[in-house]
Records
---
Amino acid sequence: MADTAIKVHVQDLHKSYGNTEVLKGLNLDVKNNEVVCMIGPSGSGKSTFLRCLTDLEVPSKGQIVINGYDLSDAKTNIDLVRENIGMVFQHFNLFPNMNVLQNITLAPIQLKKMTPAKAEKTARDLLDQVGLADKATALPTALSGGQQQRVAIARALAMHPKIMLFDEPTSALDPEMVGDVLDVMKQLARDGMTMIVVTHEMGFAKEVADRVVFMADGLIRESGAPKDIFEHPQNPRLQDFLNKVI
Ligand code: ADP
Ligand code: MG
């Protein structure tokens, strides 16, 4: 088993769709408790990268090691690796016919064989943590987008993941909802969660990230401390990107 202080190890990751190569040799290590924010123009491969980490996409080439488990090793139990990764998407993908508690308890009961009573206790604690203790029996359609996204975060946390991946979690939200979701993520970061966050929220990246990674056209073009990335960008594409978004 590899060094478990490194939660995510990615080496020379390539991914092609047909003849189009969208990831062109990425290298990234994420340490325990580290928060990495990923920024970059649309189409640069950020979502594809996150999907490779959860084995939703199979790389064309390269190595991914998560929590010490090599995804390309036939002996690795991918389901177990996935249980340790929480993923939150732009579109919350809550189960529409289930109430908030049912959404959060489903996976712990089915996959972790948690008793319904224990799963509900955990779910209520998590709802408290995301500021939605009073919404336990609401259906997703009765919630605002920001509330639904906080339920999606609680649902991911209910599996006690070791790593949380976020793919533009606030991009689909009305502006007034964004702050509450970012506050939940900030608290998670303070509590020591290892996180990779694809985001257009530069304020969040500046404040919360240990490291900011800039992707363009299938490669990491620059990475560093938020201060360096935002105040002293070196790569012309990063300079251009920041001029457009800030
Ligand atoms: P980002 O998240 O940075 O906007 P994506 O990872 O979504 O970028 O996409 C990177 C590139 O890969 C884009 O050109 C996109 O059109 C292409 N792409 C993504 N998913 C697929 C797919 N399933 N089939 C073919 N092309 C895809
Ligand atoms: Mg994307």
---
Amino acid sequence: SNIDAEKVLQKLKKDTAKNQELFGIAKGKNVIVISLESTQNFVLNYKINGKEVTPFFNKLAKSSYYFNHFYHQTGQGKTSDAEFLVENSLYPLPRGAVFQTNPLNEYNAMPEILKTNGYFSAVFHGNNKSFWNRDVMYKTMGYDQFFSEEFYNVTAENSINYGLKDIPFFEQSMPYLEDLPQPFYAKFITLTNHHPFILDPEDQWIDPYSVDDGTVSRYFTTVRYEDEALRQFFDHLKKSGLYDKSVVVVYGDHYGISERHEDAMAQVLGKESLTPFDHIQLQQVPLFIHIPGKKGRTVESIGGQIDVKPTLLHLLGIETKDDVHFGTDLFSEDHNDLTVLRNGAFINKDFVYTNETCYSNTFGIPVDIKKCEPYIDEAKDELDESDRIVYGDLLRFLKVK
Ligand code: GP9
Ligand code: MN
């Protein structure tokens, strides 16, 4: 009933704690969000035959806010689930892709919120517009413009796997980006580092990892390509003058290497075998936030994609007290570090819970399950409440002013 719905929403309309020093630091700036396909955190600072796999990301980690305990929280909707998390601060669904099952719901997504703050919004992606039902969902989320495959010159030479390669994707996006009304909110979705991680020989700038598992082996070469694409994009941004006028948020969308590749991954990580605890560590994806004029630092807060929306809104000086969101500001001292994965596993400063086992987060060894019990319920409630909102389309009852 509506009464129940209002109760849920009332409870969730919370004034998420801020970091007073950073609140509004990027007020009125453009926002550029980049989704990194299948990029896990373990590739940072990794070397193959003495060469860095991610030379650009390693530098970016030093010139921006780099979150080194940040987790993806996606389910079957993969890239689209990550988009949903980041822009709504709601969980994706336990099965299926929310972009496909609930694209006509009422949401209060980033592009919509920013529109009321004078922003124009656009999304850029070199694949067909209907993949993941994006064309429908993006309208719902308030995007003013979707630059999909049809806006790009895609040829046999400049595409591979799912579509346009990342380097020409960013190159060809620049004129569109420079033409957008400012301030803008622009999202870019990369594509080349996608399973099965294939690459033309001329794009291969690092040796494959030497292991008897082609997927893991090739993964490093497509990550290396993506890293170079990002380096070039940042260069374009600097040349165009947009770099100094824009907050840039870069996040990994989800894992690229599944649990099936455990043996090869054990070798990559220099371990004899992997435990469920190790598997959770592998769900870490990078998050970088570059703010013009700020040097940044490594932020140790444990968090996930659900936290990006309130974090970013606060940087832009936008209040979140009338917004329903499950995440909290990663820069705040009161950030809630309980990070819930879509399958009910969770991580906080002290514990990692997975496979019905409670691990010490410090030592990675099983501890008494009782230690995890209070959080097991909290994690479950959190997922259930979010699911109720999505399945019941409850944000219809939210009056935003
Ligand atoms: C497709 C791209 C990849 O357009 O977003 O999708 P994924 O399979 O990673 O969800
Ligand atoms: Mn993806």
---
Amino acid sequence: AKEQGRNTYRFYTPQMHATSMEQLTLSNDLRYALERGELHLCYQPQVSFETGGLIGVEALLRWIHPKLGMIPPDRFIPLAEDTGLIVPIGTWVLHEACRQAMMWVAQGLPSLRVAVNISAKQFRESDFSDTVKAVLQTTGLAPNLLELELTEGMLIENVTQTKLTLQSLKDMGVTLAIDDFGTGYSSLSYLKHFPLDRLKIDKSFVKEIAEKSGDAAAIVEAVVALGHSLKLTVIAEGVEQQDQVDFLHNRKCDELQGYFFSRPLTPQALEELLRKGVNG
Ligand code: C2E
Ligand code: CA
Ligand code: CA
Ligand code: CA
């Protein structure tokens, strides 16, 4: 639905001028961001309930623009998707995350799974699984340490092709997570047809737990139960407060991620955390 919106006509108003000029400048600058080394990854810890230890990280993209400073991904990833730049950028992210994770392994630090966000356009490239394979080969990272975060919408678009791509990734040994679970299509039937490993409960539901909204609590509870009945592990994102931790713990959510544990960290800061031995 998002993509359809981009192709439809819109009326132009003078107020739109500033934003579209900015978009245009950003789109243009983004073309050079990669080669100029302006893109960086930070890594947010994911914690296991059972052990309380650090078990994985999610790689999150940052653009340090020379004039505008830090531009959050929500502002430039949509532009990268529109222009197709998301494909080379996404390949860079995959490579950089695997290279970094392999470096930690080589330094003898405890093994961490690294989760990489994949955009729909990137996933639909006919050679996507070949790209993943090549990245694993060149970096030497064990495939089971790479997790791909996909969204519901991109899976149900072309089910036959999706199944083939997911299966070839599974055959490689990569793990697969559904990101932002619960926000997209409510067609749950696809879940059991795809070889998935993990459901990631969207942070909007986690947020509402703290606001004591009965609906969100029921949704979280249902998602955990659904995930477990399909033999998937369940991770909650956006965990900020103790009462959310307690709630998710009582509902047997397997893993947690959020500011309560840590903000996304630079590779150096994450390394320090690993050296302190917070792994479990
Ligand atoms: P996402 O995949 O849902 O990532 C989680 C977002 O929640 C991240 O925002 C993270 O910093 C933020 N977050 C983590 N813990 C908390 C918390 O406790 N509270 C709150 N309120 N937020 C928290 P970020 O880094 O700004 O990324 C935004 C989105 O940009 C991501 O959402 C993802 O969709 C996209 N993105 C980021 N990196 C990449 C990438 O390398 N490739 C692609 N295709 N998309 C990316
Ligand atoms: Ca994600
Ligand atoms: Ca998410
Ligand atoms: Ca999101």
---
Amino acid sequence: MNGFGGEPLLPPIGSLHVILRIFDVLMEMDLLQRFEAYVAAEKKIEPKDWMPDAYRKTLIRQISQHAHSEIVGMLPEGNWISRAPSLKRKAILMAKVQDEAGHGLYLYSACETLGVQRDDTIEDLHSGKAKYSSIFNYPTLNWADIGAIGWLVDGAAIMNQVPLCRCSYGPYARAMIRICKEESFHQRQGYQIMMTLAQGSADQHRMAQDALDRWWWPSIMMFGPSDAASIHSSQNTRWGIKRFSNDEIRQRFIDSTVPQAELIGLTIPDPDLTWNAERGSYDYGEIDWDEFNRVIAGDGPCNAERIERRVTAHEDGSWVREAALAHAEKERARREEVAA
Ligand code: FAQ
């Protein structure tokens, strides 16, 4: 293991157990101080650098949950590939769902650089031990929901993820750069669906408004608990993982989305939404935190269905993983034969 930026760690000295222990503690304190200074100087931590256990743990937690969200997030949209209203819409949606799979793969890979096995991470999702974004536990009832997901859910994802491009952990930050570029296409395709519906027939306009009514509050909840209730925020901000608080990013999302709704003639379903000229921001109504807590505890409208679909897909795909491993083994044996 290295120090930071590839510097070697000092070798331990002394032979007595107690001296070694004291030395270990001092070295750990020194490393922690140097780690925090390194992060504060906006330098990236790389997989082989020393890092506090809690930093590694919180990154594994966040990145794996993020990966699970991308993969579970394919399900509500995947439901609509066969029912998209035109060949063009079908091709676009298929590409988007494939992008989400790609995001999941970059993120599982970033997570593996922290020393966890992908199989274990996926098992944590299937057993209910690991969370994934609350938003994907809501049903997609009609085509307008696909527009609302792109516009609001991808829009919220970008708002949260652009700051993550500056995360102190190199592999996560780099993965986020590409993911954000793709998410901004997703947001635009969703908004374009909503715009088409909102400017279409009266029934289509109603569909768009109904989708906004159902997806608005769950989208607002995506940013996580209020700052007062957020348990990881202060430490993760200090470590350069989080750049803005949950409430700050939620507010930015609301401020940028309200004019987009107005532009296409839709109404945000919040009677308390008012422009606060003093703050230069919208004031908004009370979020139903009971609903949020129920959904993240596994009791949302689609939690059971989503996990069941994921487990079945994983089991159905076992032959692909076995074939890939057999192929890799064959290639390895062939290379050894040539080298011998
Ligand atoms: N859902 O102390 P905090 C997407 C949990 S990707 C479920 O504030 P933190 C792309 C949190 O994990 C969407 N659980 O936590 C797409 C923690 O529980 P734990 C996913 C939530 O980490 C679009 C507890 O509450 N994006 O949409 C949620 O500082 C369309 C306390 O919370 C990411 O994962 C929630 N909404 O801040 C795909 C971005 N919120 O772990 C398909 C990366 C909070 O102690 C189609 N993650 N919790 O058991 C983050 O930025 C952060 O983890 C936050 C939470 C901001 C989500």
